């Protein structure tokens, strides 16, 4: 079975390779965050907050037709950009595909070494949440 998640990760990795330096990559991440779809105010509740993020991140998952769909937003520009990457990789995917695809893009894009420790922890918390939703949906 081909992996939609792995293919999407490869696309993102190739896009980031087009940028020569990290200032351009940061700007690209922020621009991606600005293009996130509107996040409904009624979903900005404590139950939807991701723990472990320095900034506020609201994150919801919905299962339709055997696939998981995510909505999320943050009050921080760079985090919203990271959310945009995660939604691109994981939203609309089969839960099994999510669980079977390690997040190789994090290392390939060198995000740990270019994000602050708190942002890196937040990214990890968001990835954990996605995998938790996928595990519940796959069960």
Topology (SSEs and partners):
Layout: H1 4-17, H2 22-34, E1 57-64, E2 67-74, H3 77-90, H4 95-100, H5 104-108, H6 111-114, H7 117-138
Antiparallel strand pairs: 1-2
User: Percent helix among the residues?
Assistant: 55-70%
Strand content: 5-15%
Instruction: Please give the largest β-sheet.
Output: 2 strands, antiparallel
Count of distinct strands: 2
Q: What is the H/E string? A: HHEEHHHHH
Structural class: mainly alpha
Describe the fold and architecture.
The chain is mainly alpha-helical and 139 residues long. It has a single domain (4-138), classed as Sufe protein. Chain: A. Helix content is 56%, strand content 12%. The protein has seven helices and two strands. The protein has helices at residues 4-17, 22-34, 77-90, 95-100, 104-108, 111-114, 117-138; strands at 57-64, 67-74. The protein has a two-stranded antiparallel sheet with strand order 1-2. Helix 1 packs across helix 3 and helix 3 (77-90) runs parallel beside helix 7 (117-138). It is globular, with a radius of gyration of 14 Å. The two termini are 19 Å apart.
Summarize the structure.
The chain contains seven helices and two strands, in the order H-H-E-E-H-H-H-H-H.
Features:
139 residues, mainly alpha, Sufe protein. Chain: A, two-stranded antiparallel ribbon, 2 strands
């Amino acid at each position: 079975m081909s992996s939609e998640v792995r293919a999407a990760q490869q696309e993102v990795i190739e896009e980031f390779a087009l940028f020569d330096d990290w200032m351009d990559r940061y700007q690209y991440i922020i621009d991606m965050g600005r293009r996130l779809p509107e996040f409904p105010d009624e979903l900005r509740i404590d139950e939807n907050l991701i723990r472990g993020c320095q900034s506020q991140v609201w994150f919801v998952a919905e299962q339709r037709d055997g696939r998981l769909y995510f909505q999320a937003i943050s009050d921080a520009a760079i985090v919203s950009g990271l959310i945009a990457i995660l939604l691109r990789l994981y939203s609309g995917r089969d839960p099994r595909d999510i669980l079977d695809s390690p997040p190789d893009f994090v290392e390939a894009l060198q995000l740990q070494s270019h994000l602050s420790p708190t942002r890196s922890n937040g990214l990890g918390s968001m990835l954990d949440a996605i995998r938790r939703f996928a595990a519940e949906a796959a069960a």
